[in-house]
């Protein structure tokens, strides 16, 4: 492999899929082809596996490999872009997951920072990602910036300006933050060299106004048509329609997430709003209360959604 920087052309929407579990807590791999087809029919062309919403950090290394392999097989049929999150584990395991994803020729890998010996400077983060990049030299690498969960608060504009050619496979970041000033600096870094995927469902419209064109948002599992309409309105400069679409999406997200943890509530919404049953979240997370389900059902119905 030459050390020429890898190209990465995917732009647009990626849906971070939920990991389906059986009632006994084991992986439900059988539903993944149906899940992939469901999203493909809704117009979703990109998939992220083993992220936060996918509970990647609640699974063993072997389980994460099995989920990855099942999605690799599924997207051969659906032709979706496949991004695999490999971080959130001890570094030897992260390296192993990166090598595994690289061997399967996935389209890209996403990586959290070291979560215990946390990097505090751009240089330390770059050194960590260099190790990951060397484990998967043929696969475009993105960094997963989610400071509210990692407590790694390195400024993404400064980080992206510092990389240079140190990581040949590095192509961009997932920016899960509400700090759009920092996001805009990341977007402009090195003459817009890197792709920035915003990971905030309620700021899509605002981010579009800043020039962002790529998003990884969990609500795409339940509201794919709405989000694609929102992105089309943004692209076409239809600001009033985009504003309306964003308000509609945000209203739905708010009535879902008010009942608990992001993953816990989104998994319940997936069950209520689609034919894909991803089961209960895995410990330490737990299912929301039956009372909360009743309220969520009522709120979503009042917003005009047809529930199962």
Description:
- The chain has an eight-stranded parallel β-barrel with strand order 1-2-3-4-5-6-7-8, surrounded by four helices.
- The chain is 46% helix and 11% strand.
- With 308 residues, it is of the alpha/beta class.
- The chain is globular and about 50 Å long.
Strand content: 5-15%
User: How are helices and strands ordered from N to C?
Assistant: EHEHEHEHEHHEHEHEHHHH
Question: From the helix content, strand content and strand pairing, which structural class follows?
Answer: alpha/beta
Q: Count every beta strand, where a strand is a DSSP E run of 2 or more residues.
A: 8
Q: How are the strands ordered across the major sheet?
A: 1-2-3-4-5-6-7-8
Mean pLDDT: 96
Overall morphology: globular
Low-confidence stretches: none
The helicity comes to: 40-55%
Number of helices: 12
The main pleated sheet reads as: 8 strands, parallel, barrel
Rg of Cα set = 19 Å
Through-space gap between termini: 50 Å
